[in-house]
Design brief:
Length: 65
């Protein structure tokens, strides 16, 4: 089990950030992802493995005016 934005979320072995975003249908073009308070670079989403027990935050960036 992992925490995604402070909610329990099922975890599976070898789950990458990119796969998690796809599973949870995050489609915004700009998303900031933190794992255990460490920012993950978008270039690393496909290679960063989420571990059981990790705390993940996915934050949508929106333009404002």
């Amino acid at each position: 089990m992992i925490k995604l934005n402070n909610r329990d979320c099922e975890w599976q072995e070898e789950l990458t950030v990119q796969e998690l975003l796809k599973l949870k249908t995050y489609t915004y073009p700009r998303i900031i992802v933190y794992i255990n308070s460490k920012i993950i670079s978008p270039e690393d989403y496909s290679s960063t493995i989420i571990q059981d027990g990790d705390e993940v935050k996915a934050i949508h960036l929106m333009a404002g005016g």
